[in-house]
Design a protein that fits this description.
Chain lengths: 721, 325
């Protein structure tokens, strides 16, 4: 009997504990009950960002964090399309001057050949302050409190939050100049340092000087960049910054909207350079120091990262104008309101899609992407072929946003290859035939749940120069039929193949079947259906396809050596300008021998000439005509099978507002809003615990044990024979 | 005993060295220093010069195991292997290839791993032993038959299924616990209920069957018959006499894993978003961070050796007849 009463006590305690917990909110809530109605946005990340230092961070998951903390001079307008730049910390868009070789300002309309330098002249908004940070903390004698920490001070420090004193100061043009010099810091390995050496005046020579001095300097000390002058970056006064570039490089304005060009106070570098802090992993790569709408209040990327509203954030307001459809869609409801609209952003680590998806459905994440496992549960295609939410999602008030990414996913031909390369008509026809045979509409349907748009050229929708409709199709692969592009028939491809010298996929000269080799980086058995699909496409032409699958590193090495024949690759745009796509086929960027991004090693004099004219022009009819000529050139020469532009699908709950897909802006979180009350109510409604199966389980267990226990008791009490 | 411990510690050195060489060779067969540099420097705009600089700064431009160009001892010491391995034997893990201090990271991530692994072990032991004793208690009844059948059934299910099934049942259908997540201090409890419960249930099949076998072997011995003949109740016989005598094989299985507990559980931590050490090594392999891989493999081996020594010591405590000479 004593066992029974103990068990009963245990159950009662358990139920009491759970019951008490239940009073505070849903039992399955992963968040503190006190936060239920707070203005907090909840999202997730699947892999810890590698770098948070603005000189190093480049990937989208890194930008998602530091884009909210650091403020470059310019930013993308949140609502307007096509994407336009607007001032962020600058008072206005830069005044751009063109200079000749002697440094004299050229009149407007001067030919490109006369331009030796271009100057970008910025004036900063006054009164912008950095976030509160220990690096700025000063004592009574105005000395920096934490720039020379001794072992006793360091003993009690585990994270940045352990510094009790913080300070701030006004943002100045020197901070931008300092960060531009940091891009050259030999220990930082900024990914854009090499690129910028071509453009910023004096950047390369400063890089060489820093390289020399840094390695000669004693280790473990602050390597101060302030004494080093950079010819191309001048600070005439505390709020004016002038950047001088070699020649004309209009795309530079887009780089100025990236966090590479965000300000970094020298105090932060001096503070973080202390060896005692580095040993505790307190570095600028872990604890950013910005002037943006949020500060990184908690950085534990093994669990969660928390952004808190920056108490010193300057006046910044929600846009008052946008595209025509934005007002009816409610995207201007907050026009003119002070930003940010959300107080706190909590990003939790979710490595697995199943728990992540279920927590989204329970209301614990405000928005979500759609993994292929959950796609059918969330989305169905209507009679017109457009994606629609399933009734289950609609019942929860979930909404769907789709947008085409500024990305290319393609199959490239190595033009140096003797079989597939060459710009003569026969080789072009061979590549055109293969382009027709590779049915990307089918690919999108099979492998991407319809989340993609077959590419008609190198430019994705939304980029200047992209054409809708009949004018925009690739006439070598598609026909315009009944108001839509239709892939040419396989007979057309066979005819082109025959004209190229391979009737029915057999080399007319040697009588041997045409065998092609596709290099790609694969992920093991999961890619088998994909490989089978590729093979099937070329079998339609009688062409055999052999795979040379490797991991991504080896794949890159092969590409660098020009050893591939056909390869599968992709490109995510850095900025929304056609130059950032066409440069992938520019002759001077050929992978072999120049080590550039033109992995197809496509070198066409005509293309290069057109590209060099197009890249420096402002958007307008002349540029559009050049873009069309470029598209025509590459559609004919077919250095790529253009593949597809991925389409991103995202879901968000009804309480999540102001979401408009913006693939370029990194600082979007400040525009988002949350109706926390509605969220709390929905969470409570959707997450009522179900107790009866647990009680039934215990009852069943009890029922199973009692007869056996009785049997045992009888046996114990039975008299021995 | 002291001599024994010193001898075991000395045995450990060549073992650790061997593990270290093996890890080193396996890692560099798959990843060249160039691959590592590319992985760390990113995908775009990476030049060969940048790769060379990255390797030079981290000492990955040295020969791997033997430096033919160096003089004297330098042939051995001016190699990647020597430079990267010596500190490990002093438990100085150094910096990861991405620049973070590995020791600090391990110290931070060990606690959540322990927060899950320790209760999972304790509750697991308790439940499995009690159930096994229960089966022995009810031996030759329908409960034993169906209990063993249930154990075989539970044994046949993949651990991943327990995780996904548990999350689905308790987190999604019954809405009783958070599906995944973690929090500091006592707030961690509500996140740990589900993974610990799943860990205990998933271990019932193998655990209960193993302990039941041990107890059955003991329960037929003479001393048990004597105890019964003296009139002791079956409960007392089982919990006082049988359990104590079955301790040696139980300790063999348990003590050896104690030091390794904080290394964490890879799959469970990943599915429940527990920020422990379980995923630290796998993340490092994914990011080709040799410094972390090397440190974690070394630590794992050292802890395993420690576990074996502790097992030997625990024998002397459980059974006074055992002596370590």
């Amino acid at each position: 009997m004593s066992i029974g009463s103990n068990q009963l006590g245990l159950y009662l305690t358990l139920f009491a504990a759970l019951g008490l917990a239940g009073c505070e909110g849903p039992l399955n809530s992963p968040y503190p009950a006190a936060d239920a109605e707070r203005n907090i946005l909840y999202s997730s990340f699947s892999e810890r960002p590698k770098h948070l230092d603005p000189a190093r961070a480049y990937s989208s998951d890194e930008s998602l964090i530091i884009g909210q903390i650091y403020e470059p001079l310019l930013q993308y307008h949140y609502l307007k399309r096509p994407y336009v730049l607007e001032p962020a910390t600058a008072e206005a868009l830069p005044e751009i001057r063109y200079l000749d070789a002697s440094g004299k300002v050229l009149p407007a309309g001067a030919p490109d050949s006369a331009i030796a330098y271009s100057e970008y002249d910025f004036r900063l908004k006054p009164g912008i302050r950095f976030q509160p940070h220990a690096a700025f903390a000063r004592g009574a004698a105005d000395e920096y409190l934490y720039h020379h920490l001794n072992p006793e001070q360091l003993a009690g420090i585990r994270t940045l939050a352990d510094f009790h004193e913080t300070g701030t100061r006004e943002l100045t043009a020197e901070d931008y100049a300092y960060q531009i010099k940091r891009l050259l810091h030999p220990a930082l390995h900024s990914p854009i340092a090499e690129l910028m050496k071509e453009h910023i005046v004096g950047f390369k020579s400063l890089g060489d000087t820093l390289e020399r001095d840094y390695f000669a300097a004693p280790k473990g000390q602050f390597f101060d960049l302030r004494p080093y002058a950079l010819e191309g970056v001048q600070v005439p006064d505390s709020h004016r910054l002038v950047i001088r570039l070699n020649g004309k490089y209009p795309q530079f304005r887009f780089w100025l909207a990236m966090t590479f060009f965000a300000p970094m106070p020298w105090e932060a570098d001096a503070f973080y350079a202390q060896p005692g802090l580095i040993e505790k992993n307190i570095t600028p790569d872990w604890y950013p120091v910005g002037s943006g709408p949020y500060i990184l209040a908690e950085n534990n990327p093994n669990r969660r990262m928390v952004l808190e509203r920056n108490p010193f954030f300057h006046e910044d307001r929600y846009p008052v104008e946008g595209d025509p459809e934005d007002d009816p869609n409610g995207l201007l409801a907050d026009a003119g309101k002070l930003l940010p609209l959300v107080d706190r952003v909590v990003m939790n680590l979710e490595k697995e899609t199943i728990p992540y998806w279920n927590k989204f459905l329970q209301g614990y994440y405000d928005y979500s992407g759609i993994a292929s496992d959950n796609f059918d549960q969330a989305v169905q295609f209507g009679s017109s072929g457009s994606p629609e939410l399933t009734p289950e999602m609609l019942a929860q008030g979930i909404r769907l946003e789709t947008s085409v990414a500024a990305s290319d996913y393609y199959l490239g031909f190595n033009l140096r290859d003797p079989v597939i390369g060459g710009l003569d008509e026969a080789h072009c026809k061979l590549r055109q035939a293969l382009s027709i045979a590779m049915d990307y509409e089918e690919f999108i349907s099979i492998f991407m749940n319809g989340r993609g748009v077959a590419a008609q050229g190198v430019l994705p929708p939304g980029i200047y120069g992209y054409r809708e409709g009949q004018q925009g199709i690739n006439p070598y692969v598609y026909d315009w039929v009944d108001g839509a592009p239709q892939r040419k028939s396989i007979e057309t491809a066979r005819r082109l193949l025959a004209e190229a010298g391979y009737p029915n996929g057999v080399d007319a000269a040697t009588g041997k079947s045409l065998v092609l080799y596709l290099d790609l980086s694969t992920h093991g058995a999961d890619d088998k259906p994909l490989l089978a699909w590729y093979r099937k496409q070329l079998e339609k032409l009688g062409v055999q396809l052999v795979f040379r699958a490797t991991d991504y590193n080896q794949f890159q090495q092969k590409m660098a050596a020009g050893n591939a024949q056909i390869y599968q690759w992709g490109w995510n745009a850095d900025y929304p300008d056609p130059e950032n796509f066409f440069f992938l086929l520019y002759g001077r960027n050929a992978k072999v021998p120049n080590g550039g991004e033109n992995a197809s090693n496509y070198v066409s004099e005509e293309f290069d000439r057109l590209f060099e004219r197009m890249r420096n022009l402002d958007d307008g009819p002349e540029r559009m005509a050049l873009i069309e000529a470029l598209q025509e050139r590459i559609r004919h020469d077919a250095p790529w099978i253009f593949g597809l532009h991925p389409k991103s699908f995202s879901l968000h709950h009804a309480w999540y507002g102001n979401l408009k897909p913006n693939l370029m802006a990194n600082n979007k979180l400040k525009y988002m809003k949350i109706d926390a009350r509605q969220r709390a109510a929905r969470r409570a409604e959707w997450n009522r615990p179900v107790w009866w199966p647990v009680l039934a389980g215990f009852a069943l267990l009890f029922a199973a044990v009692v007869p056996a226990y009785r049997h045992y008791r009888q046996r114990q009490r039975a008299a021995a024979l | 005993m002291t001599a024994y411990l010193i001898r075991r510690a000395l045995y450990a050195l060549p073992l650790l060295l061997g593990v270290n060489v093996l890890t080193f060779v396996l890692f560099f067969v798959v990843n060249s220093p160039d691959d590592m540099a590319r992985m760390h420097l990113g995908q775009k705009h990476v030049t060969q010069e940048a790769i060379a600089k990255w390797k030079h700064e981290r000492g990955y431009d040295l020969p791997q195991l033997w430096n033919g160009e160096a003089e004297g001892v330098g042939k051995l010491t001016e190699t990647i292997f020597y430079q990267k391995s010596v500190g490990l034997f002093l438990f100085r893990f150094g910096r990861s290839d991405s620049g973070r201090d590995i020791g600090a990271d391990i110290a931070q991530r060990a606690w959540p791993s322990l927060a899950f692994a320790v209760p999972a072990l304790i509750f697991g032991l308790l439940v499995h032993i009690i159930l096994a004793v229960g089966l022995v208690f009810f031996r030759l009844t329908y409960l034993e038959f169906w209990g063993v059948a249930a154990c075989v059934a539970l044994l046949s299910i993949s651990s991943l299924f327990y995780i996904i099934g548990g999350q689905y049942l308790l987190g999604k259908l019954l809405l009783l616990v958070p599906i995944s997540g973690y929090d500091g201090g006592w707030n961690a409890v509500k996140f740990l209920i589900l993974p610990v419960l799943i860990s205990v249930v998933a271990g019932i099949g193998p655990g209960v069957r193993w302990y039941r076998t041990l107890f059955l072997e003991e329960v037929e011995r003479d001393y048990v018959r004597t105890a019964r003949a003296k009139g002791l109740s079956e409960t007392r016989v089982l919990f006082t006499h049988v359990l104590r005598n079955a301790l040696i094989p139980i300790l063999t299985g348990v003590v050896v894993i104690l030091p390794a507990l904080f290394i964490g559980s890879l799959i469970t931590e990943s599915f429940f978003a527990i920020p422990g050490l379980g995923s630290y090594t796998i993340d490092a392999i994914g990011q080709q961070d040799f410094a972390i891989v090397r440190a974690m493999v070394f630590l794992g081996s050292a802890l395993y050796i420690l576990g074996l020594v502790l097992t030997d010591i625990s024998y002397t405590l459980a059974d006074p007849r055992v002596r370590l000479n």
